């Protein structure tokens, strides 16, 4: 396959730069504690300095994998599929989600929302970043808003994002892992003073699972 042919298949979503795939327990947000199969797609240019999967940033490091093979693997493990990254919406998610839905699977995505929303999703977890803000469409369609709290200014940013989501969107504040000891007490106080928010923790890290 030539480079141009490979790129055409990537552009169509028939190939995706697969970083990793694994069956585990969802550790964050609304579905925490439930079993799910994670598909991590390589490629991200949002560039959060505290990102805990920086190895996902360069799509070129991850093998272009046939979408139907990704789906076939996922089908073996779970009915709930979480597509994450990187930033998965850098790629067209239509083919992937169409195939997953055709097999009766639930499709969830974790995204910064900075790119066009493609694919068919049962659950959209929007985690906006200051460097590249979400699109208007994903604000309207998000089921949960998960704002990462690294410092006090992130509370202000979280409120700005919450003002743009739909009225049914569930609002979460989650401490950045390296700052959890400092920020958890502040998040607790903030949620008690502003009960529209809920606390999200990276429980998979406490459980020492992927």
Automatic annotation (TrEMBL):
> Biological process GO annotation list?
tRNA queuosine(34) biosynthetic process
Radical SAM core domain sequence ranges = 31-210
Q: Which residues bind substrate?
A: 25-27, 40, 84, 210
Q: Which InterPro entries match?
A: 7-CO-7-deazaguanine_synth-like, Aldolase_TIM, rSAM, rSAM_sf
Comment on bound cofactor:
Binds 1 [4Fe-4S] cluster. The cluster is coordinated with 3 cysteines and an exchangeable S-adenosyl-L-methionine.
Q: Extract the SUPFAM superfamilies matched here.
A: Radical SAM enzymes (SSF102114)
Task: Report the protein name in the record.
Answer: 7-carboxy-7-deazaguanine synthase
The species this protein was found in = Bizionia echini
